[in-house]
Amino acid sequence: MASITISDLSKTYPGAAAPSVTGISLDIRDGEFIVLVGPSGCGKSTLLRMVAGLEDISGGEVKIGDRVVNRVDPADRDIAMVFQNYALYPHMTVRENMAYGLKNRRTPKSEIEARVAEAARMLELGPYLDRKPRALSGGQRQRVAMGRAVVRQPSAFLFDEPLSNLDAKLRVTMRGEIRRLQKRLGTTSLYVTHDQLEAMTLADRLVVLNAGRIEQVGAPLDIYLRPASTFVASFIGAPAMNLLDAELDGARLRLGTSEIGLGHLPGAKGAVTLGIRAEDLVPSAIGLPFRTDFVEELGAQRLVHGHIDGQPLVLTLDPTAQIGSEMRLSVAAAKLHLFETSTGKRIATAARTGLAVSQTALTKPV
Predict the structure, then answer these.
(1) How far apart are CA 148 and CA 94, in angstroms?
(2) Longest pairwise C-alpha distance within the chain
(3) Helix (H/G/I), strand (E/B), else coil: 196
(4) Rounded Cα–Cα distance for residues 317 and 222 (Å)
(5) How far is CA 87 from the centre of its chain?
(6) Are 346 and 280 in contact (CB under 8 A)?
(7) Is residue 365's pLDDT more than 60?
(8) What are phi and psi of 153, to 5 degrees?
(9) What is the percentage of the chain residues whose pLDDT exceeds 90?
(10) How far apart are CA 197 and CA 192, in angstroms?
(11) What are the φ/ψ torsions at residue 312 (nearest 5 degrees)?
(12) Do 189 and 32 touch, CB atoms closer than 8 A?
């Protein structure tokens, strides 16, 4: 096992108008599970492939353990990679697929047999060792691909969207298997996905990427509770955070025909973006005027879609809650998020700006 250190890493493809990855620096601790998440084209797979040695590095440095690996062949980096398309040899059995890499490294036969048997036991592949990939389900094939990586006993695992080809129910099962396996082995892992739910449930730390740059790094819950920008706020969380145009005037935040009391913010005025999580909105006798458009029934909860003064908004309610065509909503001031309209960046906390929020924010018509 080993740490991975990425320093000012960049990648520009020939003829490209802009870099795919720009100035990425990241320290991955030994045994840590890091998830790279972001929309298609944000650079997450390119970053992973540079760590693996499958893409040339335009600038910066990658270290695995204490060794700089910029010019080290992929086979000599002591990493194992799991791909979304399994990459199994169709003419080989499960046993032969799992043992292939070890045979190429001239590992003794007795050790190969022991490692394959142990990996098969961990991944519940024992009954399938003599089958070929065409006789396996998608989930079983993905477990074989994981087993082939496990038997290598590498310094690090690299996962490139390994669950994207599986159905929704199987993805949930495989997420649990991957997390349990990583915790048991304690192997440093770098995992790529565009699925924010997958990212939240797997990661020790999330790395949110946007247009080839790191937007925010942190524990999943920290990022959910304190997104650094409107991009992160809208990407992390299901449903996405509500983002509304508002006007800040000292202790008051004006939202259409209503206002929310914030406490004290000396001299602060101007347009801001207000962020509110769907679960933080509560029906009340007074508050923001909400008009319902439609309801999504999800069993354990309801997603109520509507708008406030023409701005779309979603709230989460208990399935037994009464829903009217018109309602009033209140929100605790401590649950509000403020972002700069021009940059999308989070407005600084109380310690830096003097913002003092009460635990409840009364909303009333202006």
Answers:
(1) 9
(2) 79
(3) helix
(4) 23
(5) 24
(6) no
(7) no
(8) 50, 55
(9) 65
(10) 12
(11) -65, 145
(12) yes
What is the C-alpha to C-alpha distance for residues 316 and 330, in angstroms, rounded to an integer?
13
Q: What is the pLDDT of residue 348?
A: 67
Chain center to CA of 90: 32
Cβ pair 79, 28 in contact under 8 A:
no
Which residues are registered as beta bridge partners of 207?
36, 217
Secondary structure class of 292 (helix, strand, coil): strand
**Do 14 and 176 form a contact (C-beta atoms < 8 A)?**
no
Q: Residue 160, Cα to own-chain centre: how many angstroms?
A: 13
Two structure tokens written together for 330: 């209140």
**What is the rounded distance in angstroms from the CA atom of residue 123 to the CA atom of residue 361?**
51
Query: What is the pTM assigned to this prediction?
Result: 0.87
Mean pLDDT, the chain, as a whole number? Answer: 89
Count the Cβ atoms, other than its own, within 10 Å of residue 64: 22
pLDDT, average across residues 221-240: 95
Name the more confident of 6 and 324: 6
CB 336 within 8 A of CB 272: no
Q: How far apart are CA 235 and CA 241, in angstroms?
A: 8
Let me know the angle formed at the C-alpha of 196 by 190 and 199, rounded to the nearest 5 degrees.
Answer: 30
How many helical (H) and strand (E) elements, i.e. helices and strands, does the chain have? Answer: 9, 20
Classify residue 280 by its DSSP letter.
G
Q: What are the residues facing 264 on neighbouring strands?
A: 356
pLDDT in tens, 87-103: 899 999 999 999 998 99
Tell me the C-alpha distance between 66 and 94, whole Å.
34
Q: What is the 3-state secondary structure (H, E, C) of 53-118?
A: CCCCCCEEEEEECCEECCCCCHHHCCEEEEECCCCCCCCCCHHHHHHHHHHHCCCCHHHHHHHHHH
Cα 233 from Cα 339, distance rounded (Å): 10
Report the SS3 class of residue 154: coil
| CA 22 to centroid of chain Cα atoms | 19
Q: Could you tell me the two tokens for 245?
A: 């145009």
d(CA 294, CA 163): 32
Fill in the amino acid letter for 365. P
Return the structure tokens found at 62.
Answer: 């990658």
Q: Quote the tokens at residue 97.
A: 């697929």
**Cα(360)–Cα(149) distance, rounded to whole angstroms?**
52
Closest CA to 292 of 315, 273, 320, 258: 315
